[in-house]
Every structure is written in structure tokens, then in C-alpha cells.
Specification:
Elements (H helix, E strand, L loop, with lengths): L2 H9 L11 E7 L6 H14 L4 E5 L2 E4 H7 L9 H4 L11 H6 L7 H7 L9 H17 L2 E8 L7 H11 L7 E8 L2 H6 L6 H17 L5 H7 L2 E7 L27 H22 L5 E2 L2 E2 L6 H9 L2 E4 L7 H9 L3 E3 L2 H7 L2
Parallel strand pairs: 1-4, 4-5, 5-6, 6-7, 8-9, 9-10
Antiparallel strand pairs: 2-3
Cofactor: Zn(2+)
Protein name: AMP deaminase
GO molecular function: AMP deaminase activity; metal ion binding
């Protein structure tokens, strides 16, 4: 309706167009921040300059980078964009599991562990180096910024300190970059592996260090520095998985001891409840606070969108809102933002 008027107003603003206005990518996973060509160039460079560097332990044996590639029957000459195979194609359509496998270079989890993990045999050094290269590109472009998503799983209490040490020790700081913590909904996996006994342990691993460092920053000094650059939390997993409704009234987290994964709404409620308490305390202490921006409405039950509406400040995806006009209107009235991902959505669900 006001297209011409908006165009005229845009022309009156000096030195501003699409290319020199500041843009923030609010939905990018750190493991996919670099393009395939950049990752390929980095892997080849490391294979050429540090072939004998010990990088991983397999079956009690420490392997060098050269030995890892020899076990894959590959050389630097063999590597190409096609052999990396990290592009989501038609085979990933409606298959979130196959889409996730595209994060593995050459389909090998050991290469992902070496080059794209923060907690590994080399303390995430390679991942830090390529991340700093990506950040440097952002700084050179001047007008591009990003909120990189990085995972905290809730499997153990020291995850926060390890992640904070990785960021602080490698000096991954930039005015163009902020961090957003994504929490995978994988309680059932941790329970099956004997890493936790109930859902309360997951919540404690996620939030106890945050409350401790808010009360006394000296308890986790590096975490205190890192949290100053964290903007919020995300809840992620395959939304298309069916959820069994076994309870008329859900038990408390300490009583959730079954191997079944809690539903999406359960995760949202307890994440939001803990964040509210944490934010109030951090506000009183003069520290920065966090928002809750979960993945919602990418696939699966539209109940996820209702839960996100009640608990979040913004959501990621939200493509199922087109099927629920009433909720879509409520999101508009409350101005709850949507971070859309057209390429991801087209590859997976549209």
C-alpha cells in the first residue's frame, strides 16, 4: 500500500542502502558459520602444515591428522566440495536426521570432532582458528554481524566452564559477534547412556553454574566474562518426532525418571521458569539478562507454537503459523519475532 512512499523516504536517507545498513544474522549455528569452500581450504591447510599433530584418540590409540586421513583412504588431493558432502539436497527432505548428518565432513563424525568441536583432544583449537577467520570476515565487511549458536547439553556440570574457557582462552571476542546458547532436547539419550538419573539433573547442569556465577563471579571467572556476550537461549531438536502423552499431570523434574523424553511444552516451561528467576537476580546485580528464543513451528505439533507464545520473546522458523491463523494473529499482536530460515526450510520441510 505504501510502497512508493517508503521508496521516496528511503531515497532521502543519505549513505544508506541494503549493503551499508547493519545486518544481524540471528539464526546461524557456529558449526555452519563457514561455507564449504572455507572449511575445505582450512582442512587442506592443516593437513599440509600440521600432518603429524596428534588430534584424536580412537580405541586407546592417539592418531595424528595424517593417520586419520589415511584411515579414510584420503589425501589432500582427494578433497573437494563434493567429497565434503555437506550440502543438504533432496535426500534430506523431511529427514531431520539426514540433515544433521550434513554437519559431518565426508560423512565422518571423527572429522567433525577434530574440526568442529570445542571440547576434544586438542581443546577445540582448530575450531577456534576457523571461527576467528569467519569473525574476521564479518569485521572486514563492517556492516555484517551474527549471533552464533553454540550448544550446552546439560549432561555434566562442567560444560559451561569448558565452553567459556574455549571462548576466553582463544580470545574469540568481537563487537560483531554475540552468542546464543542452544540446548538440545536429548534427555532420553543421556538417560539411556547413564549420564543422568532424572530430568532435574539436566536442569541443574544447565542452570546451577549460571546462578553460582551470578551470585559470585569469582566462582567461575571465565564464565562471567563469556556470559557478558551471551544474548539468550534456544531449545532445539527434531520437532517432527511424535510426543507420547503419558501423563494427565506431569511429574516434577526430580520425579521424571523414565527413559521417555519430556514433551516440548515441559522443556519450554522449565527453561522459561529458570530464566525468569536468573534474569531477576542478574538485573539486581547489574548484569546482562537473557531472552528465550526456541525453535518452534518448524514441523510437528502446532502445540509447540502455543507453548512458545506463552514462554518466549521470539522464535525460530514458525512456518506452521500459516496453518493456525489465530496463533499467527496473536504473535503479531504481541510482536513476537520470527527468525526465518528460507534455505533450511526449503531443504527440509517446504
Amino acid at each position: 500500500m505504501n510502497e512508493r512512499e517508503e521508496t521516496m523516504q528511503s531515497k532521502l536517507v543519505p549513505h544508506r542502502d541494503l549493503y551499508n545498513v547493519r545486518k544481524v544474522d540471528g539464526h546461524v549455528h557456529l558449526a555452519s558459520a563457514m561455507n564449504q569452500k572455507h572449511l575445505l581450504r582450512f582442512i587442506k591447510y592443516k593437513l599440509k602444515t600440521e600432518p603429524d599433530r596428534p588430534v584424536i584418540v580412537r580405541d586407546g590409540q592417539t592418531l595424528s591428522l595424517r593417520q586419520v586421513f589415511e584411515s579414510l583412504n584420503l589425501t589432500a588431493y582427494d578433497l573437494s566440495i563434493d567429497t565434503l558432502d555437506m550440502h543438504a539436497h533432496k535426500g534430506a527432505y523431511h529427514r531431520f536426521d539426514k540433515f544433521n548428518l550434513k554437519y559431518n565432513p565426508i560423512g565422518e563424525s571423527r572429522l567433525r570432532e577434530i574440526f568442529m568441536k570445542t571440547d576434544n583432544f586438542i581443546d577445540g583449537e582448530f575450531f577456534a582458528q576457523i571461527t576467528k577467520e569467519v569473525v574476521s570476515d564479518l569485521e572486514q565487511s563492517k556492516y555484517q554481524m551474527a549471533e552464533y549458536r553454540i550448544s550446552i547439553y546439560g549432561r555434566s556440570a562442567d560444560e559451561w566452564d569448558k565452553l567459556a574457557a574455549w571462548v576466553v582462552d582463544n580470545k574469540i571476542f568481537s563487537s560483531n559477534v554475540r552468542w546464543l546458547i542452544q540446548v538440545p532436547r536429548l534427555y532420553n539419550v543421556y538417560k539411556a547412556g547413564g549420564q543422568v538419573q532424572n530430568f532435574e539433573q539436566v536442569l541443574e547442569n544447565l542452570f546451577r553454574p549460571l546462578f553460582e556465577v551470578t551470585g559470585d563471579p569469582r566462582t567461575h571467572p571465565k564464565l562471567h566474562i563469556f556470559l557478558q556476550r551471551v544474548v539468550g537461549f534456544d531449545s532445539v531438536d527434531d520437532e517432527s518426532k511424535p510426543e507420547r502423552r503419558m501423563h494427565k499431570k506431569y511429574p516434577l523434574p526430580r520425579l521424571w525418571t523414565t527413559g521417555e523424553n519430556p514433551p516440548y511444552t515441559y522443556y519450554c516451561f522449565f527453561t522459561m521458569a529458570n530464566l525468569c528467576s536468573l534474569n531477576q537476580w542478574r538485573l539486581r546485580r547489574g548484569f546482562n539478562t537473557f531472552v528465550f528464543r526456541p525453535h518452534a513451528g518448524e514441523a510437528g505439533d502446532t502445540e509447540h507454537l502455543a507453548a512458545a507464545f506463552l514462554s518466549s520473546q521470539a522464535i525460530n522458523h514458525g512456518i506452521l503459523l500459516r496453518k493456525v491463523p489465530a496463533l499467527q494473529y496473536l504473535f503479531y499482536l504481541q510482536q513476537i519475532g520470527l527468525a526465518m530460515s528460507p534455505l533450511s526450510n526449503n531443504a527440509l520441510f517446504l
